[in-house]
Input
Amino acid sequence: MVLCRAKIWDRRSKVKKILVFVVVLAVALSSCFIISAPGNNTAKAVVPLQWTQVNNGFADGQHGVSSLAIDPTDTEVVYAAKNFDGVYRTTSGGSLWIQMISGLTEPIVRSLAVDPTNTQVVYAGTSEYVFKSTNGGSLWIRMNNGLVNKNVSCLAIDPTNTQVIYAGTTNGGSGTWILKSTNGGGLWTPIVNGFTNSMVYSLAIYPGNTQVIYAATNIGVFKSTNGGGLWGLTTLTLASTHTYFRSVAIDPSNGQVFYAGAEDGYVYKSIDGGDSWIQSGVTTGTPDILALVIDPTNTQVIYAGASSSSSSNGGVFRSTNGGSSWSPAGLAVPYINCLAMDATNSHVIYAGTDYNGVYKSGATSSGTELLLAASWNLVSVAYPLPVASIPGL
Output
């Protein structure tokens, strides 16, 4: 009888220990589980950036760099538009720049665009016309049929039909503030249906549906959903925000999500195509947010170029949470006019300035990158008491 009771007690003790072990093991394993989460949650650690001035070959560092464009098929090839100096090209990622002005009779270049399907085709918007090169900038031809004296501040090429090009201007006159070409710049037609006369500073085409276009202007952000055939003013307006909008960028994974940089130091974000918006301050003061780029590998990461007379307010800033907050990205110079991101390596960004030429970023040697599978989130990082420390186990 005593032996029987002893056996029962011994079994209960063993069962209790096993239960404790199972509970502890479950907690331990929870620190390793990665659980699927809805939405686009691709995790990519943001690494520190180190900036280097890359001005070798520029005739005059004092002339502002107004636009930058990277060849999408060979990202060592970059074009830079310089006020009064025309267009420069590097084929070595900025190590050496060469002036490319043959045929470019107008030296004040405001905007650049590279044809993504034939990268030998490059467009340059100047203070009067659009010029086109079919040999990588070696020779430029003026494309002024329907477009004269317009100060072309921005260019956008339809990636699905590169014969379609949009040109935004800041002195259009007679309603011709945006013009469209459907034959590679051979003829330009004004877009006036629903577009109120205003200075156009930036254009963005949604790659998933190139009929969706946004335009940042001095009276607000306009939107077209039919390739510029009809425009409507979103709720981001001068009347509602009391500021001009100088830059616009579309989330490449969602055409309803876009960001607009303004002259009040804020970036405005809409997740419903412009029906509503939130704002977040990039830095102290009220710098002009002249440039925005979105990391295509992690669209929660956005870079903003701020232009201000104060070096503490100007520079490149970064958000890692979809524009909710911003922090310095390592480059603090007063006047950032434009940004261009390497589509194959989002750590490589070029920044064009007013007085310091071009800077190029790269990940610092101490930076490490962590890649997790798309749509997965780490839900626990706690590590429990080691199993071996539990008495009897």
